[in-house]
Design brief:
By secondary structure, the protein is an alpha/beta fold. About 35% of the residues lie in helices and about 15% in strands. Strand 4, helix 4 and strand 5 form a beta-alpha-beta unit.
Length: about 300
């Protein structure tokens, strides 16, 4: 963004926040294509921050894009060589699963299929999956909220039914538990859907936040789990899926069992069923392995 001559925002969720990260106004001309001004209201602030825009086009981004393409005329495609980073390979041996393991196993099992990611957890790293089609990732619900993943994914799977694309949702356990009954709708209406639950038995994002606040306020860090841990007893997510009429697999705690569970879930999906995999991941494991890989690479 710092090097750009022009920045075109096609209804980006928070353009002001994105540009604020540049520290100071961007040097580029900023063009905003959006109908967000219809939401401007001093009470709700649904439009979020107001970005520094040089040209505002009050239009639907799809219509504006079509008009821009007509104005540009026929252009020769310019291939861009892009180096795709490989996922960090952790040391072999017995160890806990991480979100990265779940991503790697799913990516390997679905390598030859068109996949639409309908939902991703907060712990997801951008390097875990590489998108090559507009439908590869359907976006997020915004606001960092949880609980909408199952419902959004059922609706997306309905829209994708018959397209040949796999509707794949990767949800956190808290997100899944808040909306698990949406699965009944998918089962009832025969909507194929695969959900992999990255189950760390915690609202872990809030654990991290409570740890940070405990340090700031000089309070016991060891109490960060209170109100956030989802264990003692652990919830049987696979059984909860089966209670809605879906196929439940797991809990899965190692890489070998994860591969088997994914293969079984895909077989159920191909039969038109709803499948849920309970993958027990260690809190924060994916972030640590990616961080370690970056540190090694940077030397």
């Amino acid at each position: 963004l710092r090097e750009a001559d022009a920045i075109v925002s096609l209804d980006w969720v928070d353009l002001a926040g994105t540009l604020k990260a540049l520290v100071g106004a961007p040097k580029a001309k900023v063009i905003q294509v959006s109908l967000d001004h219809q939401l401007h209201n001093g009470w709700s602030m649904d439009h979020q921050g107001l970005p520094p825009v040089d040209l505002f086009i009050a239009a639907d981004p799809d219509a504006a894009t079509a008009a821009i393409l007509r104005a540009l005329g026929t252009l020769e495609p310019r291939p861009i060589a892009r180096q795709v980073p490989a996922l960090h390979e952790p040391a072999p041996g017995a160890r806990a699963l991480g979100v990265e393991d779940l991503a790697r196993a799913l990516r390997g099992a679905l390598a030859d299929r068109a996949v639409s990611l309908t939902h991703l957890p907060l712990s997801w790293q951008g390097s875990f999956w590489h998108w090559r089609h507009p439908l590869d990732y359907l976006g997020a619900d915004g606001g960092g909220g949880i609980g909408s993943g199952p419902g959004i994914s059922v609706g997306a799977a309905l829209a994708l039914r018959g397209t040949g694309r796999v509707a794949l949702a990767i949800c956190g356990d808290g997100d899944f538990l808040m909306g698990a009954t949406a699965l009944w709708t998918a089962v009832h209406y025969r909507i194929p859907l695969l959900i992999a639950v990255a189950n760390n038995r915690s609202f872990y994002n809030d654990e991290v936040h409570q740890e940070r606040m405990a340090i700031v306020r000089n309070r016991p860090v060891e109490n960060k789990w209170i109100g956030q841990k989802i264990h003692d007893p652990d919830i049987d997510i696979a059984a909860l899926a089966r209670a809605q009429g879906a196929r439940g697999f797991g809990p899965v705690t190692d890489v070998a069992a994860l591969a088997t569970a994914i293969a079984d879930a895909l077989a159920a999906l191909d039969r038109g069923e709803v499948a849920v995999i309970d993958a027990r991941v260690e809190p924060g494991y994916g972030a640590r392995t990616v961080g370690a890989a970056i540190a090694r690479k940077s030397g």
